[in-house]
Structure formats: C-alpha cells, structure tokens
Amino acid sequence: MKLRPFDYLAILLSVAAVGAFSVFAYAGRGKSGDVVVIEASGQRWLYPLGQSRREEVHGPLGVTVVVIKDGKASVVDSPCPDKLCVHMAPVSKPGQWIACLPNRVFVRVRGDDGQKTDDTSY
Amino acid sequence: MGRRPTIPPIDGGAPRRDLVALLGGLCLFLSTLEYLIPKPIPFLRVGIANLPILIAVDLLPAGSLFLVVFLKVVGQGLVSGTLVSYVFLFSAVGSFSSALAMVAARRLLGQRASLVGVGVLGALFSNMAQIVLARLLIFGEGAWLIAPPFLGLGTITAVFLGLFAERFQSGSRWLASLRSRA
Question: pLDDT of B74-112, one tens digit each?
Fold first, then answer.
C-alpha cells in the first residue's frame, strides 16, 4: 500500500516528539553522572553515586532495596510481582533510570548541576 | 489504498451491537496474547490489543467505538488482574486518549491519512497521556526520562499495526460482507 501525506506527517510528529524528549532526557550523557535520584511515595532523595550504600525505600507494596556500589545504582529487591526493576541493568550515566511501577519507585541518575545531595547521617 | 470508499457506519440495532461485542471480545483475546510477550521494561507493549479499535475507527460511529474501548479496558483489567489498581487508570486514560485522537484524526484528515497515520497519532496521544499521568501521580520529573523509548517504540509498533489494519481492511471478506450489508 502507499502511505498518504498525513501518514508521513503523523510519523514525523511522533519522531519529533521522541527527539525533543531525548534532548531533554539525555543532555549531558557521556560524562558519568554524579547524583542518584530516588523518587517514591511523593518524596525524593538524592544520593552521591560515588558512595556505596544500601537504601530501603517504602512504597505501597513494601520495601524496595536500592544499592549504590562502584559508581552504579541498581534495585536488588522489590515486592513487585514481575521483578522487572531487579532485572534492569545498573545505572550510572545521566538520564538512565530504573522503575518499579507496582511499588511506585523511580531511580534515576542525574549529572551534578550544583544541587547539593542530601546530607548523610549515621 | 485510496480506492477504499469511506465506509458508512453500520446501521443501528442488532448488527452494530454484535459488532461491538465481537470487537470487544477480540480485544480481550489479543490482550491475553499481549501478556504472553515478555516486556523488557515496564510500560513497553506491542499494542496488538488496539488492532480491533483501529479497524473500528472506520466501522463504527464514535459512541460505539468508545464502547469497544470500554470493553477492552475492563477486559484487560480482568485478564491482568489490574482492574482495581492504579495501573487500570493508566490503561483507561491511555486507551480513551488514543480513541479520541483517532476519531478526531479521521474526522479532520478524512482519507488524506490511512490507518497508519491514524494509528500513529492514536499511539502518540495514548503514550503522552500516560507519561503526563506518570508525571502527576507517581514519578515526578523523572517521568520525562521514560518518554523517548516509550514514544519511540510506540511509533514503530503503531506503523506496523497500521499497515496490518490497512491490509486487513482491503483484504478481509468478512469486512466486505459487513460493508455490503450496511
């Protein structure tokens, strides 16, 4: 079949949307990110990527465990049924993310744009 | 394409009701197939369950089309067990946005777009609506990071589903008999 004019326009519009979001999401890619942003239950935590740690994040289903180690963040455990977040590769570059939808936890890496990380207390 | 005449909506009464039920059932069946396909990242789907709705854009008046969408959304919620979770909200908002966009696209563009263009616009609106919802309800600003792979894959699958729907529309004897009866 032959595509019609507005088919091309619709595809172009979609590709433009992907492009615009890519520029937004992946700006600053290449250099390694510095800050791990964890968003859950309407709260947001920032942690330095360079410091190994283990964080337990509470969501509607229970506790999601996020581990930062060797400059990479990963989800090692989550109470979701399919464990997609646990299987996702560790993230280390700005724009990379791991999401656990059922437990509403979102982990992403951000370049250090001057914002201070949350203080750590022991 | 281009030869295909605009199909008059199936006249009311029993035939249209049967068609709504048939398409709704088909959505449900295709949803079960969809869930068999492993998902590499949450959100990403092929969207084969939307095929009956794409075909229905040229078959049913808007009201009946939304009824099919309603059947699909509730059916999917039952099959996947998400009917009483917030995932259902995403499914419902995405499906209805897409249906609205497709009906609007067909009305505004007429035959200057095939089902490929109509489907691509439907996918774009469905995915954008879900990203905005994710931004508002769950993830905060991080939601925008999901957009590129989500919208990108959505565009690709929509093109293939659109091509399939066009082929189906021009080749299906079932559809041809429906049209001749209408």
Answer: 988 888 888 888 888 989 999 999 999 999 999 999 999
CA distance B180 to A60: 53
Residue B116's closest CA among B176, B57, B71? B57
Amino acid identity, residue B158?
A: A
Neighbouring C-beta atoms of residue B41, cutoff 10 Å: 17
HSE (side-chain half, CA atoms, 13 Å) at A50: 6
The answer to pTM > 0.80 is no
pLDDT by residue (tens digit) across A73-122? 999 999 988 888 999 899 988 888 899 988 989 999 887 554 444 555 55
Q: Which DSSP helix (H) or strand (E) runs through B133? A: helix B115-134
On whether any CB of chain B is under 8 Å from the CB of A66, the answer is no
Please give the domain boundaries of chain B with CATH numbers for all domains: 14-181 (1.10.1760.20)
Interface pTM, i.e. ipTM: 0.83
Task: Determine the distance in angstroms separating the CA of A118 from the nearest CA of chain B, rounded to an integer.
Answer: 18
CA of B110 to nearest chain A CA: how many angstroms apart? 10
A62 φ, ψ (degrees, to nearest 5)? 150, -145
**Cα A43 to the center of its chain, rounded Å:** 15
Identify all chain B residues contacting A88, using CB atoms and an 8 Å cutoff. Answer: 41
DSSP B150: H
Cα–Cα distance between B147 and B10 in angstroms, integer?
38
Instruction: Pick the residue of A18, A29, A41, A86 with the most B CBs within 10 A to test the interface with B by mutation.
Output: A18
- Interchain pair A106, B1: CB under 8 A: no
